[in-house]
Write a structure and sequence with these properties.
Elements: H1 5-17, H2 22-55, E1 69-75, E2 80-81, E3 84-85, H3 86-100, E4 108-114, H4 125-132, H5 141-150, E5 153-157, H6 158-163, E6 176-178, H7 181-190, E7 194-197
Parallel strand pairs: 1-4, 1-7, 4-5, 5-6
Antiparallel strand pairs: 2-3
Helix pairs in contact: 1-2, 3-5
Length: about 200
Amino acid sequence: MMFSTTTSRCCAKLHRSAWHAPALVTVACTLLASMTSVTASETQSAERKAAANSQADRPVIGIEHRGPIKVVFQVTGDDMKEGVGKGLFYLRKIYKGYLAAGIHPDQLDIHAVYHGDASDHMLSDEAWNRVRNETGGNPNSEILTELAKLGVSVELCDTRRVANGWAKSDVHPDVKLVSGAYHRIIDLQLRGYAYAKF
């Protein structure tokens, strides 16, 4: 057990004055150290609670721009999150976050431009099975339909589609085709859309 400086001094005095009862001195020193340790722990705990309480009133900046909200997301990664493409997962989360903040859906103009490795996420069930050598269909089919119903424009680079040898019918029916991903992103930015990338 570690002794504080004060405890060590007290124990040294006890050892010098009680040379005939060393066991008793050892017990007294151990008890004194335990009490000092508990007091220090209680003090540290109280200090942590006070610090946490002082932060409880710390302000959090919310959504300040109430609309119109115009944004284009560039999505290139093949990552999955909770069973769907990560980009699609966050598109839905962002959309619902705006609604939860009281933004009316009429104020939301959200586009997601897919290209690169993320392109497979835009396939129909049949094309997904063929391209991915699977049998369960595209795990993104439902969320693609959901986002379309919400008014989110999910778009696939047609240059990538052609390069991959996919027919237009291979693309999920709720996905729009754009001539080129970079041209589309630039076009939307020049029209005042904010840009973000997943």
